[in-house]
Amino acid sequence: MTSRFSEEDTVAERIASPSEPFSPPIVVAVDGSATACHAVAWAAVDAGLHCCRLHIVTSVSIPTGYGPGVALTDADTEWLCKDGERVLTEANGVARVAAYGEALDITTELVFDPIIPYLITRSRQARMVVVGSRGLGAIRRGLLGSVSTAVTRHAHCPVTVVHSTSATDALSSVKPVLVGVDGTENSVPAVEVAFEEASRRKVSIMALHAWSDQTSGLDVGISGWDVIHDTEDAVLAESLAGYTERYPDVSVTRVLLRDRPVRCLLDESERAQLVVVGSHGRGGFAGILLGSTSNALLQSVECPIIVVRQR
């Protein structure tokens, strides 16, 4: 069944008028869980900052693959629709509160399609997809839910995964944006997103470059480390040069560390409101879906994290 119920005609919304340029929305998936509420709050604030539409979606699809298909009666379908509408109404309320009274354009959609393929398809015409790290179906205290895992691996736009906090409170909102920079083309989209987010949030950036992917038992003399340090410092400076000129309002703190990127980013994330990373690091292969650093951070950071890949 592929019927959809929405607050507005979402099919018409996806077809931009020739006289009106298409403005991609921020799409957030909800399921009534506490984590989903944090995801909606973060998405609402970000939509307000980008002056774009927020599209809230929930799926009432029955999972398959665990036995014979479930035959839904009319009563079952009616109950699913009412429960889905309840979830959307609650999420709409959370978004309105989180947006601090701004005139935020919000649309909602209830789908019978499985949520993962829906979000991946929708990501082709979205500014960003936002999901909670775990939904109602995840094992309690599990690491990462199936939806967030699949979407971060396959989406065509940046994906934000929100964990136990939306980081939209007054204390968190003044913290900097943390971005991982590895000096390759893979981190360029992440750096661009990080600068734009920092500029709109009126906060600074911590640009972190960890230049030792692995440790060994061999040490290098002090003079040797000085040469490597200067080289890596130049790599970081070159990676940021164009963006510091484009965003003069964003102050940058350069963090250069001789350690593993995951460990460094995780430590620094405790002082950030948002982490931005590329989908692949400098050690990634072209065909890999998600790099080891981004995958590990998705499992570990507490604040929201954006994974950015080239479209």
CATH architecture of the largest domain: 3-Layer(aba) Sandwich
What is the assembly state of the chains in this entry? single chain
At CATH level 3, the topology of the largest domain is Rossmann fold
Main sheet summary: 11 strands, mixed
User: What portion of residues belong to β-strands?
Assistant: 15-25%
Strand order of the largest sheet: 1-4-3-2-5-6-11-10-7-8-9
- Provide the domain count: 2
CATH superfamily of the largest domain: HUPs
- Identify the overall geometry: elongated
Low-confidence stretches: 7-19, 138-144, 282-289
Helical proportion? 25-40%
Query: Rg to the nearest angstrom?
Result: 21 Å
Structural class: alpha/beta
Assigned CATH class of the largest domain:
Alpha Beta
Q: Which terms would index this structure?
A:
about 300 residues, alpha/beta
